[in-house]
Amino acid sequence: MSPQARKNWVTAALLAPAGIWLFFFLVLPFGAILVFSLGERAAAGGYQPALTLDNYLNLPARGAAFLNTLVLAPVGAAACLALAYPAAWFLALRVPERHRLLLVSMMIVPFWTSMLVRTYAWMYLLGARGIPHLFELIGIENLRLINTPGAVLLGIVYGYLPLMIMPIYVSLEKLDRRLLEASADLGARPVATFLSVTLPLSMPGVMTGVALVSILLLGEYLVPQMLGGGKVYFIGNALVDLFLQSRNWPFGSAIAVALVVGVVCVLLVTMRIAWKVAGTRQMDLV
Q1: Most buried residue among 158, 200, 230, 252 by CB atoms closer than 10 A?
Q2: How far apart are CA 62 and CA 236, in angstroms?
Q3: Do 179 and 197 form a contact (C-beta atoms < 8 A)?
Q4: Residue 1 placed within a domain
Q5: How far is residue 212's CA from residue 77's CA, in Å, rounded to a whole number?
Q6: For residue 75, what is the domain's CATH number?
Q7: Which SS3 state, helix, strand or coil, does residue 70 take?
Q8: For the stretch 28-42, what's the b/e string if a residue is b when 16 or more beta carbons lie within 10 angstroms of its beta carbon?
Q9: The whole model's pTM is what?
Q10: In the chain, how many domains are there?
Q11: Residue 268: CB partners within 8 Å, gap ≥ 6?
């Protein structure tokens, strides 16, 4: 056996466990959902074998859920990014190294508590006895915060902000400080240094955070259910309704397939644009 063939076999052996795991826990479930989406709802609910595209043609029936998800999920991810980048930049480049671990640990502490409990806390704060009651004391009445898109957006940012901060922080923490010093020595202003050096080199962390938060938000169920009160409907809520309540598995599967296809397309386009921007910035620096 040639050295190249031996190397290929070793590579295949190393990749086999991950490949088998992905096949059984990703490819097969998605294949089952795809088959379900082409079937029909049985008389008693569930799946009945068939070959039809009616479920895909009926997707506009859940247009409100798609619209809410495709609007609030990107807005929530953008809000997380706008808050996370300055926080990660401060932690990585301005906080002394001996204090970073403590601050990063404090940032992760909320994850030790259930998301359900934290969302319940926001339900109380945004409810009639919370923040609106405080506004009533100063003469502002009938302020409604709960069961609104704003409440859902607030819950999204609160719940997913640490997930956005961490990859950006890791990317910035590994940044070579000598590049920043060289840029300053060459006469670049702080803003120019940030746009030409810091931002392009941190783009992998930015894209990781955006992709991670966006994917999770597109399937979010808990925050819209509790802070939206059923009035702000996400695709995740529609899937729960179709699979567990109305038991229309084929229609729910069609929605799931459409969501997966849309997510893949959006992420591919977004990452391509981001990497192109990062490459252009690095070429300008050189």
Answers
A1: 252
A2: 11
A3: yes
A4: no
A5: 9
A6: 1.10.3720.10
A7: helix
A8: eeeeebeebbbbbbe
A9: 0.84
A10: 1
A11: none
